[in-house]
Amino acid sequence: MSLTAREEWKKYWTLPMAAAMANVATILHIYTLGPFMAPLQEEFGWSRALISSAIAVSNGVNAVLGVLVGLLIDRWGPRRVGLIGICVMSVAFSLVSTATGTYGNWIFLWFLIAFGAAWTQPAIWTSAVSTRFDHSRGLAIAATVSGSAIAASALPIIATGAISGFGWRNAYILIGAGYFMLAMPLAFVFFRGSADALGKSAAKEEKQQSPDTLPGMSAKEAFQSSTFYRLSIAGLLFTFGAMATIVHFVPVLTDRGLGKIEAASISGLIGIASFVGRFATGALVDRFRPERVALVAFALPAIAALLLIYGDNIVAYSAAAIVVGASLGAEFDIIIYLTTRQFGLKRFGIIFSTVLVFLTTATATGPVTAGAIFDHFGSYTNFLWLIIPMVLTASLLVGTLPPAPDHTNRMPVPDKG
User: Fold this and answer.
1) In the chain, at which end, N or C, are there fewer CB atoms within 10 A of the end residue's CB?
2) Global pTM?
3) What was the pLDDT predicted at 191?
4) Assigned architecture for domain 215-402
């Protein structure tokens, strides 16, 4: 018997909680790097560009490894992959404390982090949550990915305090160990999707709900579907514009004459709006057709761009920050949700991991492109005009997707892809 949304939360509320804590690993290395820059510069004489280049390397490696891990999610189930990932990421992050001062060693350590990040990617945590939540899946996914949103605000403070109190090397070890001690117990006890039934009495249920027999398309069917490419390209176009806008938001405002502190304060609204937008979107996709919600959410950065182009006061700039933050909070939830609905859960790991390659590419190229346009023209205006047709195209691509097929009516048959 299908559970109601209220019954889903009453029975499985601990699963999104555990998944949210484990999902912090996806940003652990990114949002702590800033506080480590000064002590790394002081000890090794490195430039900030050299230190930051590790993120570009890790993102590229993670995109490739993530697809391979996606295959393991579908083969082993998310619980086994996730528990291994928590261990790998904790050790990899702690090992940065052994940096020797050579660039080759620095990149090697971040290759290990990329390996850990691939084993803790969002597809792991959201795939298990999606098997337990149907009527309230949007809100459950929002709760799962909110762990990284909350951590984004807390991690820089935690890293700064750890560095001040124990030095940068010990800080890496403490943060890595702290993540393990928080995430592992919760995941070990509560992180169980439908394929992770407890005890011998649940053996029959576990067999019926193994990754191979969950309802949905095979990877081959998904990759032959135009829906997959429309969703992936829409994610790429949106992420390209939204991430570049966020990264360059403070410079855009300072170029308009605002002081750095004032610009940074307005930029802080992005994080707040992103958090609110995430849960609002989760609730909306559970109540309305998700493609229509996506149509609106993906178009929002166009409004933010116009506010930055024509706005000339703090109110307009603040509104732009709120709009772009809300859209960014909605985007990831929507793409995960649509992936589960359009393609089902049978091969969610490999399908969503492949979608993430498109998003990672956009994350890496968008901010660089915005910077190059500014360097050439001496202004961000041309870039802001560029992202308007990009996000509107993304909006149309997802907003006109056909209704999701009913995968529950498909006879689940094990396949090799």
Assistant:
1) N
2) 0.75
3) 92
4) Up-down Bundle (1.20)
